[in-house]
């Protein structure tokens, strides 16, 4: 099916209150009309997600974002620098374009303009914001290719857009600009890049209800995960980084030690290792610089440590 046809099917599904699987540059999302609370309820149901976990409203551009959120000077600066792209801004909510349910009753709203041409085209053709949490069932790794997305929540979707593997493979960076600027979730846009634009970022406060994406078991495979492992134990699967022997049960996140490549492979390899019949998943140490901050954040969650 060509892209144009897939997009018009997607738009029809959204208008009818149905769900759509869509690719973004970060991970696949499960989308619904943000203004339609019944459609949003279907997203929570499909994911098995607690209703207090607010969703990101995805927009085509800054103008669409300004209809649902209040932008101050800092927010404008970040949006102009990083959109379309993997940065989500949590801002004071405005108007009725995003249902209360999608905001989980908060008076703030998370917004982002995705860079993937298919998600951009779908939002543009639909003509308003769509919510799109990652297309996994709650507590599972985010899908980074079409088949994984279909396997997770495809049965709940009326339309699905195939954009191939996701370029980035990690969810967007979430920055709240409510009181002082805070990083709620590290992601593909790095801390240093944001701080260069608006100054130092505070950590998320510990009130988990404000960003439940930080719950410790959010990105959890079924097998136990052991971090910082230099060599795997006998029955463990191994996610290597840098030089490593090519062996069964070894998935190398990046043979050349490239963090962007490791991010793009992370969730798919966690899934593969989880299915391998091993006793657990050992993961090589990943440097905590640049994109490594987001990778290590997801790995700590996969291992069940509080983040
Ligand atoms: O890359 C991404 O952001 C992907 C793709 C599909 O766009 N989407 C995604 O959505 O990761 P989701 O729903 O899995 O993660 C949304 C994150 C959660 O950590 C949530 O708690 C936080 O954003 N969030 C949403 N609205 C918020 C708000 N009003 N205040 C604080 N955190 C919020
Ligand atoms: Mg998610």
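^ Assign residues to that structure.
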């Amino acid at each position: 099916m060509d892209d144009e046809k897939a997009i018009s099917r997607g738009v029809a599904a959204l208008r009818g209150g149905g769900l759509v699987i869509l690719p973004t540059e970060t991970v696949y999302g499960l989308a619904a009309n943000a203004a339609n609370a019944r459609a949003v309820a279907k997203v929570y149901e499909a994911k098995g997600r607690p209703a207090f976990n607010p969703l990101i409203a995805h927009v085509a551009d800054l103008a669409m974002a300004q209809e649902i959120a209040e932008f101050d000077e800092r927010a404008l600066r970040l949006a102009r620098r990083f959109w379309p792209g993997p940065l989500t801004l949590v801002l004071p909510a405005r108007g009725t374009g995003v249902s209360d349910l999608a905001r989980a009753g908060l008076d703030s709203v998370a917004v982002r303009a995705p860079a993937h041409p298919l998600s951009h085209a779908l939002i543009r053709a639909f003509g308003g914001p769509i919510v799109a949490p990652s297309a996994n069932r709650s507590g599972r790794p985010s899908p980074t290719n079409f088949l994984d997305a279909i396997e997770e929540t495809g049965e709940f979707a009326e339309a699905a857009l195939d954009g191939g593997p996701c370029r980035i493979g990690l969810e967007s960076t979430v920055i709240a600009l409510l009181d002082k600027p805070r990083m709620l979730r590290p992601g593909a846009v790095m801390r240093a890049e944001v701080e260069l634009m608006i100054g130092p970022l505070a950590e998320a406060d510990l009130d988990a209800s404000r960003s439940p994406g930080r719950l410790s078991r959010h990105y959890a495979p079924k097998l136990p995960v052991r971090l910082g492992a230099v060599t795997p134990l006998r029955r463990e699967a191994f996610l290597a980084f840098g030089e490593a022997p090519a062996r069964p049960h070894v998935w190398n996140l990046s043979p050349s030690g490239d963090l962007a490549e490791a991010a793009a492979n992370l969730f798919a390899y966690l899934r593969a290792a989880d299915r391998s019949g091993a006793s657990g998943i050992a993961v090589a140490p990943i440097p905590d610089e640049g994109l490594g901050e987001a990778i290590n954040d997801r790995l700590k969650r996969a291992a069940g440590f509080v983040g």
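The chain has a mean pLDDT of 91.
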